[in-house]
């Protein structure tokens, strides 16, 4: 059986290693150390760990001050409280200053679960992606979260690192190297491109299996970097396949689906369907049931793939 | 440390710059004029800094949180030699490094962007923590407006400064009791501010923000204080030294006409330093 681990676990492990590897790495938290898995770092490097209390706006500003003094701060909390509550602090102190702050957040998306809509960030990718100077990373599993954390520390500039709460199987280990801005091709295919991010990568892989049973050969791209988006990977793939389905644990407004459709609309328009939440808040419930209710499932990706392939065929017929 | 007489003249030079720059463009003269003595003490006597090497690791940090009074900052930076004095004339014009509110990425000497109120103290805290981590004796100074204290983030940051015992940090409040919509006490009362800071665990010093002796003493007290952050509550007069501006909220963000500017320059008087002189 595959071992399942959450993105935040990979982050926690990477932070402990970073503490030894780079004495400039420091961490801040707003009263959620164990939830965000920064508590291991806190225990091992207490002098480089700053508890700020329940004050996310202050935490972001403080992180900026540390960054502007030569440190590499990781500011940690839940996605909603960073991207949304501290939005203007991120805009001014982090992005406009171009300060070397890493904002590492867990509890992104519906899989936050029973805590409900208040705690399920479904808008954070959109609000971070629009910020000048910001890099947005959404790892698919614990291994990729580990790699992304290391890459974020090595990268000079603001980074938003979106981590999941719920354990997922590890898919990315051994699939090429992790590079910010370079999409990871999980599987080659020629009939359709499935572009997924975060926990939806697993579902896109499952959808590929089901599609193959009906003779559809799907390419799966893991878009772990939403910004800067890997335009080349998108265009190379859609030029080959001629249609796309995107899948993200986020609103279809402003996230991965938007980013991909911006690229193909400008350079190579092909039929596209976006899987994600449809302009709605979430609610309380077990993660799996929530994903089912809001349509973030393998089946929905399969259905969308079949529809988008049909559209591609219709267009081809109308041209002929 | 410089003499009071010298710093008086520097203050006048800063005030003249504020009027000249503002009348040629737009800007916020009132608060900037009221803080001229504080800037004179900081940039021309107190701060250890190196205008030729703005990124010098061991420089003292000055954070202007109420970014709208950047006319005083720009004058101080230019007169210290961070950039050419001629560049002051580009203030608020297109393609200028002297943005309407300070931009760190654009102008040397600006430690952080500011303008959206309430953010400076958090950033200053982070800088003070960094200096503690690297075991340096660098000091961090942060200036806020009194109305700005209405922002919730300030209170978050006040707790952080005290909780982390940032005795290398001084917060200066430019206390002129005026904000855009009127008197601070009428818009949203923040008094008694000294007692509030005391209750939050701060070392509190109240001074007349135009008296250079008192300013100097306050900073000396800060440098000798151990174990807690220091707040210097500096009572100032918005538009200080210009009869038609003093205490008037309208001069928060309004530039004087050519005629008004001439009167202002007359009232400030000559400082003995030419328009094109770098003071250093």
Automatic annotation (TrEMBL), chain A:
SMART domains: Transket_pyr. Its cofactor is thiamine diphosphate. It comes from the Bacteria. PROSITE patterns: TRANSKETOLASE_2 (PS00802). Residues 5-170 form the Transketolase-like pyrimidine-binding domain. InterPro entries: PDH/Transketolase, THDP-binding, Transketo_C/PFOR_II, Transketolase-like_Pyr-bd, Transketolase_BS, Transketolase_C. SUPFAM superfamilies: Thiamin diphosphate-binding fold (THDP-binding), TK C-terminal domain-like. Keywords: Thiamine pyrophosphate, Transferase. PANTHER family: PYRUVATE DEHYDROGENASE E1 COMPONENT, TRANSKETOLASE-LIKE PYRIMIDINE-BINDING DOMAIN-CONTAINING PROTEIN. This is Transketolase family protein.
TrEMBL record, chain B:
InterPro entries: THDP-binding, Transketolase_N. It comes from the Bacteria. Signal peptide: none annotated. The keyword Transmembrane does not apply. Keywords: Thiamine pyrophosphate. Its cofactor is thiamine diphosphate. This is Transketolase. It comes from Gracilibacillus xinjiangensis. The lineage of its organism: Bacteria, Bacillati, Bacillota, Bacilli, Bacillales.
């Amino acid at each position: 059986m595959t071992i399942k681990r959450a993105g935040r676990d990979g982050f926690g492990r990477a932070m402990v290693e970073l503490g030894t590897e780079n004495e400039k790495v420091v961490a801040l938290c707003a009263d959620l150390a164990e939830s965000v898995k920064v508590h291991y770092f806190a225990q091992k490097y207490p002098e480089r760990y700053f508890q700020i209390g329940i004050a996310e706006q202050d935490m972001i500003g403080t992180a900026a001050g540390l960054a502007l003094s030569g440190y590499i701060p990781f500011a940690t909390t839940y996605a909603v409280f960073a991207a949304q509550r501290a939005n203007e602090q991120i805009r001014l102190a982090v992005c406009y200053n171009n300060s070397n702050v890493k904002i590492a957040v867990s509890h992104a998306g519906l899989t936050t679960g029973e805590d409900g809509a208040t705690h399920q960030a479904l808008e954070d990718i959109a609000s971070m992606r629009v910020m000048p100077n910001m890099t947005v990373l959404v790892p698919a599993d614990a291994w990729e979260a580990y790699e992304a954390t290391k890459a974020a520390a090595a990268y000079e500039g603001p980074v938003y690192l979106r981590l999941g709460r719920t354990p997922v199987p590890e898919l990315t280990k051994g699939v090429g190297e992790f590079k910010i801005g370079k999409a990871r091709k999980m599987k080659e295919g020629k009939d359709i491109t499935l572009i997924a991010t975060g926990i939806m990568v697993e579902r896109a892989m499952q959808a590929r299996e089901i599609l193959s049973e009906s003779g559809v050969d799907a390419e799966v791209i893991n878009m772990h970097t939403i910004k800067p988006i890997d335009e080349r990977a998108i265009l190379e793939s859609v030029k080959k396949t001629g249609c796309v389905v995107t899948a993200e644990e986020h609103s279809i407004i402003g996230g991965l689906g938007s980013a991909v459709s911006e690229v193909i609309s400008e350079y190579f328009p092909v039929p596209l369907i976006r899987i994600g939440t449809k302009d709605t808040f979430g609610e309380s419930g077990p993660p799996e049931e929530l994903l089912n209710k809001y349509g973030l499932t393998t089946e929905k990706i399969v259905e969308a793939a079949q529809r988008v392939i049909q559209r591609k065929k219709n267009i081809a017929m109308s041209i002929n | 440390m410089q003499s009071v007489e010298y710093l008086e003249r520097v203050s006048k030079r800063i005030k003249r710059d504020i009027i000249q720059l503002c009348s040629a463009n737009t800007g916020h003269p009132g608060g900037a004029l009221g803080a001229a003595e504080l800037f004179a003490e900081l940039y021309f006597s107190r701060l250890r800094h190196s205008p030729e090497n703005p990124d010098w690791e061991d420089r003292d940090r000055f954070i202007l949180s109420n970014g709208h009074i950047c006319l005083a900052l720009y004058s101080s930076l230019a007169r210290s030699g961070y950039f050419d004095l001629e560049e002051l004339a580009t203030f608020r014009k297109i393609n200028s490094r002297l943005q309407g509110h300070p931009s760190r990425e654009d102008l040397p000497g600006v430690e952080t962007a500011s303008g959206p109120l309430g953010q400076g103290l958090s950033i200053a805290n982070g800088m003070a923590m960094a200096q503690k981590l690297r075991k340096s004796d660098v000091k961090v100074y942060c200036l806020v407006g009194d109305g700005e204290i209405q922002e919730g983030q300030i209170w978050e940051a006040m707790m952080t400064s005290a909780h982390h015992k940032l005795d290398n940090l001084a917060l200066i409040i430019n206390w002129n009791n005026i904000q855009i919509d009127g008197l601070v006490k009428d818009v949203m009362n923040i008094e008694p501010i000294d007692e509030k800071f005391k209750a939050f665990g701060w070392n509190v010093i109240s001074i007349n923000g135009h008296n250079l002796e008192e300013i100097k003493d306050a900073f000396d007290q800060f440098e000798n204080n151990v174990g807690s952050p220091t707040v210097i509550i500096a009572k100032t007069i918005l538009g200080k030294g210009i009869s038609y501006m003093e205490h008037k909220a309208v001069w928060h963000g309004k530039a004087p006409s050519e005629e008004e500017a001439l009167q202002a320059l007359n009232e400030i008087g000559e400082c003995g330093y030419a328009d094109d002189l770098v003071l250093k």
